[in-house]
Amino acid sequence: MIIFRKLLGISLAALTLPIALVVALVAMPFNRPIRRTPDDVVLYLRNFIEGTGDKWDWDDFVSIKIDDPRLEDIRARASAFPDIDDETLLGLLREAESLASTFR
């Protein structure tokens, strides 16, 4: 009986480790912030404000964290839409445009 339990424990460990590694590798890209430029953020905001973006652009923008803290702050505040007004969105666009002009 003791040998059976040891074999069962080893079998479970041998099965669990590869599964845990696969899950970790699959989930990794979704946990890391994405690299976006100020111009990218300007484009997302402008397209949303003007209604010219693709169907899922806004969702992609607000759902994925950005590695640059300044742009991430803009993204986080924009993600409060629809609880923010148009003037606030335009202010975020101006902020991103200002960053874009200093980035070049």
In one word, what is the shape?
elongated
Strand content: under 5%
Helix content: over 70%
- Secondary-structure class: mainly alpha
Radius of gyration: 22 Å
Through-space gap between termini: 71 Å
Largest sheet: none
Counted up, domains total: 2
Average the pLDDT over all residues and give the rounded result. Answer: 84
Strand segment count: 0
Q: What's the number of helices?
A: 5
Along the chain, the helix and strand elements come as HHHHH
The low-pLDDT segments are none
Please give a structural write-up:
The protein is mainly α and 104 residues long. The protein has two domains: 1-31; 38-103, no CATH class. 75% of the residues lie in helices and 0% in strands. The protein has five helices and no strands. α2 runs antiparallel to α5 and α4 (69-78) runs antiparallel to α5 (86-103). The longest helix has 30 residues, at 2-31.
